[in-house]
Specification:
By secondary structure, the chain is of the alpha+beta class. The protein has three helices and seven strands; from the N terminus they run βββαββααββ. Strands 1-2-3-5-4 form a five-stranded antiparallel sheet, with helices on one face. A two-stranded antiparallel ribbon has the order 6-7.
């Protein structure tokens, strides 16, 4: 953790928590996922996730950066997607009485398909595909909801 400076909490889930950190070496903002590892099964799951993330190198897959152990936690450092997740983006659009423009939806689906094809080519199956597991690298331009998307999906 010495290489990173904690910025703020991003979220918490069944497998652990995620924080925004800044890498001290270059100032890049990254996401740090901490998973409590209390059993051999937890260690195996964490090791498997790390090995899968290390294999993936694709423009539409969240980039793996680093991993380390901190106390009882395994920490995985990944690319930070400042747009949040697709579930949140859809929810915000719905709350505002808008829909994502068709061109943006087509772009997101093409990126997701490309990312999944990459994973499948490596014989990796994603078993939890849902909008809250699709990350958006940048927010679309809010001023004009009909403009082409500025969002890029990561998985």
């Amino acid at each position: 953790m010495d290489a990173y400076e904690h910025q703020r909490a991003l979220g918490k889930g069944a497998m652990g928590s995620v924080a925004l950190v800044r890498r001290k070496a270059d100032g890049e903002l990254l996401a740090l996922k901490s998973m409590a590892v209390h059993s051999a099964k937890d260690r195996a799951l964490a090791r498997n996730e790390i090995e899968i993330l290390r294999k993936l190198s694709h423009p539409h897959v969240v980039r793996f950066e680093d991993t380390f152990v901190l106390g009882q936690d395994v920490c995985i450092v990944m690319q930070f997607c400042e747009g949040g997740d697709l579930a949140r983006l859809i929810g915000e659009q719905r709350s505002a009485g808008r829909r994502l423009p068709e061109a943006e939806v087509r772009g997101l689906l093409a990126q997701l398909g490309s990312a999944l094809a990459h994973m499948h080519a490596l014989r990796i199956v994603h078993r939890d595909i849902k909008s809250s597991n699709v990350f958006v690298r940048a927010r679309p331009v809010a001023a004009d909801p009909t403009s082409p998307a500025a969002a890029r999906a990561g998985s």
